[in-house]
Amino acid sequence: MSTPLKIGVLVSGSGSNLQSIITQIENGTIDAEIVCVISNRSDAYGLERAQRHKIPAIHLDHRRFSGREAYDVALVETLREYGVRLVVLAGFMRIVTPVLLNAFPHAVLNIHPALLPAFPGLHAQQQALDYGVRLTGCTVHFVDAGTDTGPIIIQAAVPVLPGDTEESLSARIQTEEHRIYPAAVRMFAEGRLSVNGRTVTIAPHPATPTGSLENPAVEPPA
Amino acid sequence: MSTPLKIGVLVSGSGSNLQSIITQIENGTIDAEIVCVISNRSDAYGLERAQRHKIPAIHLDHRRFSGREAYDVALVETLREYGVRLVVLAGFMRIVTPVLLNAFPHAVLNIHPALLPAFPGLHAQQQALDYGVRLTGCTVHFVDAGTDTGPIIIQAAVPVLPGDTEESLSARIQTEEHRIYPAAVRMFAEGRLSVNGRTVTIAPHPATPTGSLENPAVEPPA
Lengths: 222, 222
Description:
The structure is a homodimer of 222-residue chains. The first copy, chain A, has 222 residues and is of the alpha/beta class. Chain A has two domains: 1-105, Rossmann fold, CATH 3.40.50; 111-141 and 151-222, Formyl transferase, N-terminal domain (Rossmann fold, 3-Layer(aba) Sandwich). In chain A, 32% of the residues lie in helices and 23% in strands. Chain A has helices at residues 16-26, 45-52, 68-81, 98-103, 124-131, 166-189, and strands at residues 5-11, 32-39, 57-59, 86-90, 108-112, 135-142, 152-159, 193-196, 199-202. In chain A, strands 3-2-1-4-5-6-7 form a seven-stranded mixed sheet. A two-stranded antiparallel sheet of chain A has the order 8-9. Chain A is globular and about 50 Å long. The A-B interface holds A 115-119, 130-135, 137, 151-157, 162, 197-202 and B 115-119, 130-135, 137, 151-157, 162, 197-202.
């Protein structure tokens, strides 16, 4: 691709994962452009983040629509206006419908704060504490019609420690979220992800030597 | 406790986890004694392992009993004859009933080849491959009346790698099983595990300094 990937990000809250992606785009790690940030809530701090980085920030109030499908029709319209090719959910607290998924096949990403398929749905960190697991983590996945059931791209694990609260565990998981979500977006932007059924294949990084290897090296490593 | 913990191990197959525990008892890492190994199958290699280490090996054929409860009554009788205080399931391919669990409250351990609550039941490794997770692992837990639902003691994670088969993934998980199952048995033998609802608390190792610390040290560290 000659032009960078155009990304639309959907948020409902603070958008700290949005920030981690903005940072890696701005420092040149991800070759992509966030062309719009959309929130169903006018007070989402993610909208303010977008504005600070000169990204169009759009409030699309779900209460103005008759239902989920009608809302998603408007979402798709807006995303298409901006030429979006990848939709990134970053704390978007709404269930998306096939209206959105069919408009962006295999091009809607989400991150969930658990090692799926364990603890899908809301309050995943508290679910993990209540169950008494020793390891939990986060999962970046393609979104499908189910709740947190789509094909998995990356997972990272963290320990649950004695005395953990929902807050302390969420913070530990979030550190990993901010590592793996930008990494998955980068893989997508580099065209390295392919989906076959439930399996996501990650092609080697273009910089990885595959065929021949000259000796001595004629170019220094990247 | 002045006498070492008496352990009974139940197997149906090769008993490689049995071997990992035998090894750590023989090298002095775990202060315990395996007083009997019981199998529902006469051809279980675990029985042969036991005999090689001079451990009583007992074949208790489930087909001779009218049902699960009747079988477990016989199991409990045998375990009590040997003075067992901890029951370790090591590839025991039978569902245990409250008959066994009530006779050994919070004293029946199992290991499962997945990061529970993900992928309970049979063929956990194939379930993980079919789902497409990037991380899986194994879980040592106290056994309760459900299938792989009991309070968790230790979990270890391993990556699922491109091209993995059920065999290659199982082997990678088994390496971790052989580390964490003896470790959990050791914690039990040291009296360091307590169960409160779904939460297992692990008391610090007796060698861990807790109260005071003299300086300079008056004894060398263990």
